[in-house]
Design brief:
The complex is a heterodimer of chains A (375) and B (271).
Chain A: E1 18-27, E2 30-40, E3 45-49, H1 56-64, E4 71-76, E5 79-80, E6 91-94, H2 106-116, H3 121-134, H4 150-162, E7 168-172, H5 180-197, E8 200-205, H6 208-214, E9 217-222, E10 225-230, H7 232-237, H8 242-247, E11 252-260, E12 265-269, E13 277-280, E14 290-295, E15 301-303, E16 312-323, E17 327-333, E18 339-345, E19 360-365, E20 371-374
Parallel strand pairs in A: 3-8, 3-9, 6-7, 7-8
Antiparallel strand pairs in A: 1-2, 1-4, 4-5, 9-10, 11-12, 11-14, 12-13, 14-20, 15-19, 16-17, 16-19, 17-18
Helix pairs in contact in A: 2-3, 2-4, 3-4
Chain B: H1 6-30, H2 46-53, H3 55-88, H4 95-107, H5 110-123, H6 130-154, H7 158-166, H8 171-200, H9 203-208, H10 216-225, H11 230-270
Helix pairs in contact in B: 1-11, 2-11, 3-6, 3-8, 4-6, 6-8, 7-8, 8-11
The chains are: A alpha+beta (375), B mainly alpha (271).
Chain lengths: 375, 271
C-alpha cells in the first residue's frame, strides 16, 4: 500500500500545518472545547468524529475564523491565527447545507472567491474551468443551484471551496444530505480529489464508517475532549478506551477483574461459575484491577462443539439472527443473561446455514483477538 | 375546482359588494359627461382632460409623487437596516424592547403620529413643506418595510453569509453581493408598500404639510368640502389605479419569491 509510507505524525522532524495548543472554547457557562491540543499535518485527510455536541463543529469553526478560542493558541503554518477574520485566512470551508448562492449560476458560484481576490478575468476563467473538470460539472456550468441534483450541488460546493487553492479545506458533514449509495461513491471521489490537489482536508462527521473510509487519521471526540487520535485501523483494532471501542463499530464487552499471568497474558474473571477468559495485552494491569475485555463480533467464531484448542470458549443459546445478506450476526445469550454478538460471512447460500434460533452453540476466540481495557 | 355552496356565494357577494360598490360608483361617475355628479348624462373622458389642465391638481400630484418616492426609498433603507439588526444582531440588551418599538407605529393612531411630528417640526423650527412630509411618511412606513424584510431574513440561511466571508468578502461585501440580491424581492415589495402608503396618506400629511406643498389627498379632501366635482372622481380613479397596481405588484413579487424559496427548499430536501 502506497499510503502506508505517509505517516508524518510519526516523524519527529515533521512540522504540523495546524497546531491546537491548549485550546479552550466557552460559550457562556458551557465549555465546548476543553484544553485541547492537537497537531494536523500537511496533506492529511483528518477526520473529527464524535456524537453531536462533542465540539467537533466548534473546532472547525475556529479554524475557519467564525469563532475565536477563549484560551490557548491555534497555529496555521506556524502563525497564530486568532483574530484573523475568515476572509483573510488561507482556509476554505464546505458547508453542511452547501450554502450555494441561489442567485448565481454554478460557474459564478465557483468564481465567487476568485473574483474577491481581484484576479484577472482569464485567470479566473481558467481556474473555474479546471474546477468544473475536476468535479465533472462541465455540462452544468450555466445552471442555477436549484436546477441541479443534490449530488451535483455537493460537487459545486466542493469546487467552490477548492477554487482558491486553500492550504486547508474544512468539510462540515459533506455527505450528510446524500443517500447511502451516492455517499459511498462520493467518499471515493473526495479521496481522489484530495490526493490530486494535495490539499489538507479536515472533515467533521458523526458517521464512523465515513471517517474510517476517507481519513488518514481520526480524532474521536467527546464532550470537548480528544478521546483518541490514531489511524482508522488502530482506532478499530487498538482502541484505548471503552468509549472508543464502543463508538467505532460493534463490540462485545466483558466486565471483570484482571490477574496477570506473565508474558503479557492476563486472566479475566468475569462471571460466577464461568471459566475465566484469557487475553494478551502489551499494557500492564494491577492484580484485581477492574477492566473490560472488548472483542469484535467478526473475531468471535461460532460452532456446535467446543473447539479443542480455543483460548476462550463460552456456551450460549441463539437469541436472534440478523441476516444482512453478505453477513449474519448471531445474538447469543449466555447463562448470565449477557448477549454476545458473533458475525459470520455468508459464503454459503442461506439454505445450508448451520444454526438457527434456540440452538445451543459455542463461541470462541483467541487470546490476541480481544483488547483489554482499564475501566 | 370546488363549487361554492349557496351560503358561501351569498356571503362572498355581500362582502365584496360592501368593499367595492362605493369605488365602482366613483369610477363609473368619473366617466360622466354631466357637470352634476349625481346625474348620468352619457360616457365621456372630459373630466380627465379638465384635470390635466388644472395646474393646482398637477402641482399636488407632482408633490405627492416626489414625497412618495423619497419617503419610500428612505423608509426602505432604514427599514431594511432595522430588520437586519433585529434578526441578526443576536440577543443584545434591550432587543425585545427595540423590536417592539419598531412595530409600535403600526398600531399608533395616525392623528397622534401626525400631531407629535408637527410639534417636533415646530420645536426645531423646520418649515413645513415637502421635506417635512417626506420625514413624516418615512417615520410611519419604515416599520412596514421592516416587517416585510425581517420576515424574509428570518428564513435566510446564515451559512450563505458565512460562505461569502469564507470566500474572501468583507461584511459589507457579503451583504451587497449575497444577502441583498437574495432578499431583494422582499425589499422591493417593502418599497412598493411604503410607496402606496405614502400616496394614500391624508391625516399625517395634513399635519405636516405647509402652504408651499399640498399632496393630492389633501387637495381632494379640501375640494370635496366645496362640493364633489366630476374632476375629483377622475382624479380618485387614477389614484385607485396606481395604488392597485402597486399593491398587486408588491404581492406578486413576494408571492413569486415565496414560491421560488419553497421550490428550492423542496429541491434541497430531495437532495
Amino acid at each position: 500500500m502506497q499510503t502506508s509510507s505517509f505517516e508524518p505524525w510519526n516523524d519527529p522532524d515533521a512540522r504540523p500545518l495546524i497546531r491546537f495548543r491548549n485550546v479552550t472554547k466557552r460559550f457562556g457557562s458551557f465549555t465546548a472545547i476543553d484544553n485541547l491540543s492537537l497537531d494536523i499535518y500537511e496533506r492529511e485527510f483528518f477526520a473529527l468524529l464524535g456524537p453531536s455536541g462533542c465540539g467537533k463543529t466548534t473546532m472547525m469553526r475556529m479554524l475557519a475564523g467564525f469563532e475565536d478560542p477563549t484560551e490557548g493558541r491555534i497555529e496555521l503554518a506556524g502563525q497564530d491565527i486568532a483574530g484573523i477574520p475568515p476572509n483573510r485566512r488561507a482556509v476554505n470551508m464546505m458547508f453542511q447545507s452547501y450554502a450555494l448562492f441561489p442567485h448565481l449560476s454554478v460557474w459564478d458560484n465557483i468564481a465567487f472567491g476568485l473574483r474577491r481576490d481581484r484576479k484577472p478575468k482569464e485567470e479566473v476563467a481558467a481556474r473555474v474551468e479546471e474546477m468544473l473538470r475536476l468535479t465533472r460539472l462541465e455540462n452544468f456550468a450555466h445552471r442555477k443551484p436549484h436546477q441541479i441534483s443534490g449530488g451535483q450541488r455537493q460537487r459545486v460546493a466542493l469546487a467552490r471551496s477548492l477554487a482558491k487553492a486553500p492550504k486547508l479545506l474544512l468539510l462540515d458533514e459533506p455527505m450528510g444530505a446524500l443517500d447511502a449509495k451516492l455517499r459511498q461513491q462520493t467518499q471515493f471521489e473526495l479521496m481522489d480529489i484530495q490526493e490530486k490537489t494535495g490539499t489538507t482536508f479536515v472533515i467533521v462527521t458523526h458517521d464512523q464508517e465515513e471517517a474510517m473510509t476517507v481519513a488518514s487519521r481520526i480524532a474521536v471526540m467527546d464532550e470537548g475532549r480528544l478521546i483518541q487520535v490514531a489511524t482508522p485501523d488502530r482506532i478499530y483494532e487498538e482502541p484505548e478506551s471503552v468509549y472508543v471501542a464502543d463508538f467505532i463499530g460493534e463490540v462485545n464487552l466483558f466486565e471483570g477483574r484482571v490477574t496477570p499471568e506473565g508474558e503479557g497474558r492476563f486472566r479475566v474473571d468475569w462471571a460466577e461459575g464461568q471459566p475465566p477468559l484469557v487475553a494478551a495485552s502489551a499494557r500492564s494491569f494491577a492484580p484485581g484491577q477492574a477492566c473490560f475485555l472488548a472483542i469484535r463480533p467478526e473475531k468471535v467464531a461460532i460452532s456446535a462443539e467446543r473447539p479443542a484448542d480455543a483460548d476462550n470458549a463460552v456456551q450460549g443459546r441463539i437469541h436472534d439472527i440478523a441476516y444482512l445478506g453478505n453477513l449474519s450476526i448471531y445474538h447469543v445469550q449466555l447463562p448470565s443473561g449477557q448477549i454476545v454478538k458473533a458475525q459470520t460471512s455468508n459464503t454459503r447460500r442461506i439454505a445450508r446455514r448451520s444454526f438457527t434460533w434456540e440452538d445451543t452453540v459455542w463461541l470462541s476466540w483467541t487470546a490476541t483477538a480481544g483488547v483489554l481495557l482499564a475501566d | 375546482m370546488n363549487r361554492l355552496s349557496w351560503f358561501n356565494t351569498v356571503s362572498l357577494t355581500l362582502g365584496f359588494a360592501f368593499l367595492y360598490i362605493p369605488m365602482i360608483i366613483l369610477v363609473v361617475y368619473s366617466f360622466n359627461a354631466s357637470k352634476l355628479v349625481t346625474v348620468w348624462a352619457g360616457f365621456s373622458t372630459r373630466w380627465y382632460g379638465e384635470l390635466l389642465r388644472d395646474r393646482a391638481f398637477l402641482n399636488a400630484a407632482w408633490v405627492t409623487l416626489k414625497v412618495a418616492v423619497a419617503s419610500s426609498t428612505l423608509a426602505t433603507v432604514l427599514g431594511t437596516m432595522a430588520a437586519y439588526v433585529m434578526v441578526r444582531g443576536g440577543r443584545f440588551r434591550g432587543r425585545t424592547l427595540f423590536s417592539g418599538m419598531i412595530y409600535a407605529p403600526l398600531v399608533m393612531p395616525e392623528v397622534i403620529t401626525g400631531l407629535s411630528l408637527l410639534l417636533l417640526f415646530i420645536g426645531i423650527g423646520l418649515d413645513r413643506g415637502v421635506l417635512t412630509i417626506v420625514l413624516a411618511h418615512t417615520t410611519f412606513s419604515m416599520c412596514y418595510v421592516s416587517v416585510v424584510v425581517s420576515s424574509r431574513l428570518a428564513t435566510f440561511d446564515l451559512s450563505l453569509e458565512e460562505a461569502a466571508l469564507d470566500l474572501g468578502c468583507s461584511r459589507a461585501e457579503a451583504f451587497r453581493l449575497v444577502t441583498l440580491p437574495i432578499i431583494a424581492p422582499a425589499v422591493i415589495s417593502g418599497w412598493l408598500l411604503a410607496f402606496t402608503l405614502s400616496l394614500d396618506d391624508l391625516v399625517i400629511a395634513s399635519f405636516t404639510s405647509g402652504p408651499s406643498a399640498t399632496t393630492l389627498p389633501i387637495k381632494i379632501f379640501s375640494a370635496v368640502r366645496l362640493g364633489v366635482s366630476p374632476e375629483i372622481n377622475a382624479l380618485s380613479t387614477i389614484m385607485i389605479a396606481i395604488v392597485t397596481v402597486g399593491v398587486i405588484a408588491a404581492s406578486l413579487i413576494s408571492k413569486r419569491n415565496l414560491v421560488r424559496q419553497r421550490r428550492d427548499e423542496l429541491a434541497a430536501v430531495r437532495g
